[in-house]
């Protein structure tokens, strides 16, 4: 698995498509969890996490299954931990859960990149 993180609209998905063999992709904001099991690219994982939390599910439980069934996936996720702390409790929890999942993913990843202005830097 490869993890690509960075700010919103910084070119993470384009970087993934340029540097890795991506044939199928899943949009984290729209895809059903089952689609994440087979996609070469999971774009915007943070949006999938938000959807899982909104539905009352714990995405931390499912993320292990996704990696088990799809060990070579490339994942993009926006950095949510920078900036102003959200006023809404749900949004604070979403930010925390996303950050903790990213820490888990980074530990398991064969490579981690941070993309800024379309330029990727390997950080692990």
Automatic annotation (TrEMBL):
Pfam families: CobU. GO terms for molecular function: adenosylcobinamide kinase activity; nucleotide binding; nucleotidyltransferase activity. The keyword Coiled coil does not apply. InterPro entries: CobU/CobP, P-loop_NTPase. Keywords: Kinase, Nucleotidyltransferase, Transferase. One of its GO terms (biological process) is cobalamin biosynthetic process. This is Bifunctional adenosylcobinamide kinase/adenosylcobinamide-phosphate guanylyltransferase. It comes from Candidatus Eubacterium avistercoris.
